[in-house]
Design goal:
mainly alpha, 8 strands, TatD-like, Cut9-interacting protein scn1, TIM Barrel, 12 helices, Metal_Hydrolase, Metallo-hydrolase/TatD-type, 3 domains
Length: about 350
């Protein structure tokens, strides 16, 4: 919060700022009232003063999903000790509160304000931090950064407890359903759960898939556009079998291929940051960096986004955005000005649904 005043003076034209838990939702809300973007035209207009470049996103991060009670599960208990695995206990949150996505009317943040959903998702690696207790040592307490919003880890040790993937998935589904009902984009976090994450998202769009014709079907339509006589090849049952066979051949593809398959009715983007995806001290051939290079090259040009992944605005965030922008342009082989324009259009598509 100490860096909020720097946002109107940043180089970045627009910032999509994510809430992650109860403690920061009202903070994001209040900043949006003062600096929130009203319309996309006001953001991109050459006459805009750019004092309003803040786009709030309200969501519950998987790290904090244990704070939410899923009241759709009959007989849920506060702790399920029977689901231990490899000595690590699994936590099922007990009754505390229903899903409080936001306690105030988001419309109060400013009429016309765009509000994506975020940050939501799944995280297999996350472990619940230990609580601050009377036994916490003075040395541990001095590690706390008073400038951080309460409710985060704040230097606490991690416990052996993890949040069950079933519970995380239930919380994610609830938020994705809400985003869909409100026609909002969603920023989705995923760590070591590519398959589970895909399954949750695919369940959301199930029944709305786009029809995808095989190459044979497309050629046949083109060659016989005026021929309406039926034939064995027009048999719907046979066509369905052909599609099933084609789908089976693609099962070994990466999850990225599934997300961008032509049948998917949603526009799925992939976001990169230097903080998470790149080691500046290592060369491009380092394992982590090589994977990032491969991933950026494989991501379609119109589905790539950049982010800072920082909690601090101002010069530090501007630099992080510039660094990842230059990285993506270098890997993609884009001239810098062209690349900046591409990334801006992608962000605009993600936030506003504007494909122009």
């Amino acid at each position: 919060m100490s860096s909020v005043a720097t946002i109107p003076h940043m180089k970045a034209r627009g910032l999509t700022v994510m809430s992650t838990r109860l403690q920061d939702q009202d903070l994001v809300f209040d900043v949006a009232r003062e600096q929130g973007v009203q319309t996309k035209d006001s953001l991109f207009s050459p006459q805009a003063t750019h004092e309003r470049r803040f786009i709030p996103s309200f969501g519950w991060h998987p790290w904090f999903s244990y704070q939410i009670y899923d009241d759709t599960v009959p007989g849920a208990t506060s702790y399920d000790g029977s689901s231990e695995r490899s000595g690590i206990q699994r936590w099922t949150p007990g009754p505390s509160a229903p899903l409080p996505i936001h306690s105030r009317d988001p419309g109060e943040a400013g009429e016309g304000t765009v509000r994506p959903g975020g940050e939501v998702g799944l995280d297999k690696a996350f472990r619940i931090p230990e609580s601050w207790t009377a036994s916490t040592t003075d040395a541990e307490k001095t590690q706390r950064d008073e400038g951080l919003t309460p409710g985060g880890r704040e230097g606490r040790q991690l416990s052996p407890h993890r949040v069950s993937m079933d519970h995380q998935s239930a919380i994610l589904k609830a938020q994705m359903k809400l985003a869909g009902e409100m026609d909002r984009a969603a920023s989705v976090h995923g760590v070591q759960v590519h398959g589970a994450l895909y399954n949750v998202l695919a369940e959301c769009w199930k029944g709305h898939e786009k029809e995808v014709l095989s190459k044979r079907e497309k050629k046949k339509i083109a060659a016989n556009a005026e021929n309406f006589e039926s034939s064995d090849d027009d048999d719907p049952e046979k066509t369905a079998k052909q599609r099933q066979s084609s789908s089976s051949r693609k099962r070994n593809r990466s999850r990225r291929a599934y997300y961008i398959h032509p049948s998917v009715p949603a526009a799925v983007f992939f976001s990169f940051s230097v903080a998470i995806n790149w080691d500046p001290e290592a060369g491009a051939e380092a394992d982590k960096n090589k994977k990032t290079v491969d991933a950026i090259r494989a991501t379609p040009d119109d589905r790539i986004l950049i982010e800072s992944d920082l909690h601090t605005a101002g010069d530090r965030m501007d630099q992080a955005l510039e660094d990842v922008c230059r990285l993506v342009c270098d890997i993609k082989g884009w001239p810098l000005r062209e690349g900046v324009g591409r990334l801006a259009r992608n962000w605009r598509h993600f936030v506003f649904g504007d494909e122009s």
